[in-house]
Design brief:
Number of helices: 9
Largest sheet: 8 strands, mixed
Pfam families: BAR_4, PH_20
Oligomer: single chain
Helix content: 40-55%
Number of domains: 2
Structural class: alpha+beta
InterPro entries: AH/BAR_dom_sf (IPR027267), BAR_4 (IPR046868), PH-like_dom_sf (IPR011993), PH_domain (IPR001849), SLM1/RGC1-like_PH (IPR046869), Slm1_PH (IPR043453)
Keywords: Phosphoprotein
Protein name: PH domain-containing protein
Shape: rod-shaped
Distance between the termini: 22 Å
Radius of gyration: 41 Å
Strand content: 5-15%
Strand order of the largest sheet: 4-3-2-1-7-6-5-8
Organism: Venturia nashicola
Length: about 500
């Protein structure tokens, strides 16, 4: 029945610092990494724009020769916007632009044909690259931004339920443990686990998305540099027909651009921003190691929990289930002990101080009471719940805990014979009517998985001197003693036959 707990890593756990796995709601902004990448893309867009402007101005310079070329220099004379994203040491993008500025100053002549080639061949390379960077920025905002919103929404939901757990654990302490089944801190804690699991799944999904974006950025920036290098190489070939001096100057610009390693800028960027980037080697978060307020409050720790079998009223067969007795004095029934597949909600909840417990018979025992899981306004009738443990030792453990919390206990034990429909004897009309009005706790006639019909009345073996099980329990609860009669599975000799009342199975 135990499910595998999911794990996660904090969404913005960085290479230099990883958030504590003990925080259910990490104190961090999921959008910071996305903003950082968006700024970097804007830096590349401006870099592309600078190159586009440079080629355009060069094309104009071909018509105006030396004097007009001063306009070209102005296009790259200002520092790059978001220039702090580039390594300022020699050998990077910033050094490449500085080299362009120095070589452009020495170019004096150009030709009209060169201007045509620059406009029709070289400029489109950088324009397409600029378009690719813009598309990458839109893709980032549309994809990673949506994942961050989903994480924030999931964290808000988890926080609300953690606060709800705090309220009800405080109420448990202030009322001495008397709470409703719906407000049982144990149930609320399992609800927190369910929502925390969903939150962690959203965080892990967003983390994987951001890692993919981060990895794709390295490849994308290498592509940008390769495209820039390719464009400048083509540019060099176009101006190669110019004077040797001009050719050498442009060749120097190209050589400088090509000398930038594909991962030079990226490695420098990672080093400078290690506090904000995600460390892929950081361990995932785990629900088993995540804590939250009141997680180990005494009201959330079951007195006993495990697997029991309960006898169904329709088929009479025992079906397994997960049961737990909480400090709030409730016996909760669940289908499984899994908190993660869906929001756990008890099938039945018995408030043991209001219940009657039959005597232990080997591995079997019975509890009679009302299902309290329907709340204050829910309609619930008294039912008899028959349980069977896997071993006699387990039955003793369960019986000991339940019996210590139950309102009253019956000394009747489960019998091995299957009870038949009772027959009302002569002169016992009033007793039969009382038996139909108050059904006794059924603690006899349970054998294996056979179907047992609950009798509506039992005929005592000796006239009107006997008392039914219900009368005996009532007398025991009030402090008086009464002789409990022996029940007979067959009609008494000399009694008039009466049609047995159909056994109506309790609603489970």
């Amino acid at each position: 029945m135990t499910s595998t707990l999911p794990t996660r890593s904090a969404t913005t756990a960085t290479r230099s610092s990883t958030l504590s796995e003990d925080d259910a709601i990490p104190d961090e902004n999921t959008s910071e990494t996305t903003k950082l990448f968006s700024e970097r893309l804007r830096a590349w867009k401006h870099a592309c724009a600078y190159l586009e402007d440079y080629i355009k101005a060069t094309e104009k310079m071909q018509h105006a020769h030396g004097k007009e070329y001063e306009k070209v220099l102005k296009t790259v004379s200002h520092p790059l916007k978001e220039g702090d994203h580039f390594d300022q040491q020699a050998g990077g993008v910033a050094g490449m632009f500085e080299n362009i500025r120095s070589n452009t100053q020495g170019i004096a002549n150009s030709h009209t044909e060169t201007a045509k080639i620059l406009k029709g061949t070289i400029l489109p390379i950088f324009e397409r690259l600029h378009t690719e960077v813009k598309a990458k920025d839109k893709e980032l905002i549309k994809g990673a931004g949506k994942g961050g919103k989903a994480v924030d929404k999931a964290r808000t939901t988890t926080q609300k339920h953690i606060e709800l757990l705090a309220q009800h654990t405080a109420a448990f302490d202030s009322t001495g443990g008397k709470v409703t089944a719906h407000d049982d801190p144990y149930i609320i804690q399992r609800g927190v686990n369910h929502r925390l699991n969903k939150q962690i799944q959203e965080e892990n999904a967003n983390r994987q998305d951001m890692i993919q974006v981060q990895n794709s950025f390295a490849q994308f920036e290498a592509h940008i540099l390769q495209t820039v290098q390719h464009g400048l190489d083509q540019f060099n070939q176009v101006v190669g027909n110019q004077a040797d001096q001009t050719k050498l100057m442009y060749g120097d610009m190209t050589a400088t651009a090509q000398s930038v390693p594909a991962n030079f800028e990226w490695d420098g960027f990672v080093k400078r921003n290690s506090a904000l980037l995600i460390d892929p080697s950081a361990p995932l978060r785990s629900l088993s190691t995540t804590t939250f307020p009141n997680q180990n409050h005494k009201s959330t720790q079951p007195m006993i929990a495990g697997s029991l079998e309960r006898k169904g009223k329709l088929m009479g067969k025992y079906s397994p289930g997960y049961y737990v007795v909480t400090p709030s004095k409730f016996l909760h029934e669940y289908k499984t002990d899994d908190d993660l597949a869906k929001d756990p909600s008890p099938e039945n909840s018995l408030y043991l101080p209001d219940c009657i417990v039959g005597a232990l018979d080997g591995t079997k025992f019975a509890v009679k009471g009302k299902d309290a899981s329907k709340g204050k306004f829910g309609v619930s009738m008294t039912h008899e719940y028959q349980f069977k443990a896997h071993t006699a030792k387990e039955a003793e453990q369960w019986y000991s805990v339940i019996n210590s919390l139950a309102g009253s206990t019956s000394s009747e034990k489960l019998e091995s014979s299957t009870p038949s429909s009772p027959v009302v004897g002569q002169g016992s009309h009033d007793n039969s009517l009382d038996a139909r009005t108050t059904a006794p706790l059924q603690t006899s006639g349970i054998t294996g998985g056979e179907t047992v019909a609950s009798p509506t009345a039992a005929t005592p073996t000796a006239g009107k001197e006997g008392l039914g099980l219900a009368q005996a329990m009532k007398a025991e609860h009030s402090g008086t003693t009464a002789a409990a009669p022996a029940y007979s599975a067959t009609p008494a000799v000399g009694s008039a036959s009466a049609a047995p009342t159909s056994a109506v199975p309790d609603k489970i």
